[in-house]
Amino acid sequence: MKNKYTVIGIQNNIAEVCSGNFATNITAGKYSSVSLGEYMDPTIKDVEVTLTPVYPAQVNPGDKVKFIMKMVNHGATVLTGPTVHVQHANQLSGFTSQPAADNYDIYNTEATYTLVDFKQFETRYVEMSLTLPENATSTDKFLVQVKTGSLFTTNDKFSADNYDSLRLQIGKRSNAGSTVSK
């Protein structure tokens, strides 16, 4: 007689993020008879945003620092209309991005990107750069943050990944706790 085992919820992160149902059937002694199925609620909406700095070994006053913003649609629906906002400290200047922001508010130092036709499980990247002030000192820390728009966040299934931030400062990359802190 063959023993069958059913395991539900084997991928905790995706099960939490997507409220999916996971099932695995394993027949004892036969590794080839493993099947995995994911069944997601078709109305789930979930966007994850992260910021990753790309910087040289030594960051000096006046240097341009690049960032990669990553946006991932973990949901089961195509999104059109939600916004993603990148805000930075007033002392940082020269904001540029590729692709360009839909809007850049120079008074609030905030760039806005509107997600159009953002397909299920699609990942998009935006490369951004900012310039550190010429008079920056080693004790200065400059905030850069990204977040999804508030109207979307209220409908997001897993809102803990709707925000990311980091702080820039001058110094060497190898110095623990300096240059970039998250």
Which residues form runs of ≥5 with pLDDT under 50?
A: 1-23, 31-35
Radius of gyration (Å) = 21 Å
What is the string of SSEs from the N terminus onward? Answer: EHEEEEEEEEEEEHEEE
Q: Please report the distance between the alpha carbons of the first and last residues.
A: 55 Å
Average pLDDT number:
78
- The class by helix and strand makeup works out as mainly beta
SS elements, strand count: 15
Which range best describes the helical content: under 10%, 10-25%, 25-40%, 40-55%, 55-70% or over 70%? under 10%
Mind summarizing the main beta sheet? 6 strands, antiparallel
Beta percentage is over 45%
Question: How many helices?
Answer: 2
User: Which sequence of strands runs across the widest sheet?
Assistant: 9-10-7-12-13-15
Overall outline:
elongated
Short characterization:
Helices cover 6% and strands 48% of the residues.
Structure description:
The chain has 182 residues and is mainly β. The chain has helices spanning 12-18, 150-153, and strands at residues 4-8, 21-27, 30-39, 47-54, 58-59, 64-73, 83-88, 93-98, 103-105, 110-114, 123-131, 142-148, 163-168, 171-172, 180-181. Helix content is 6%, strand content 48%. A hairpin with a 2-residue loop joins strand 2 and strand 3 (30-39).
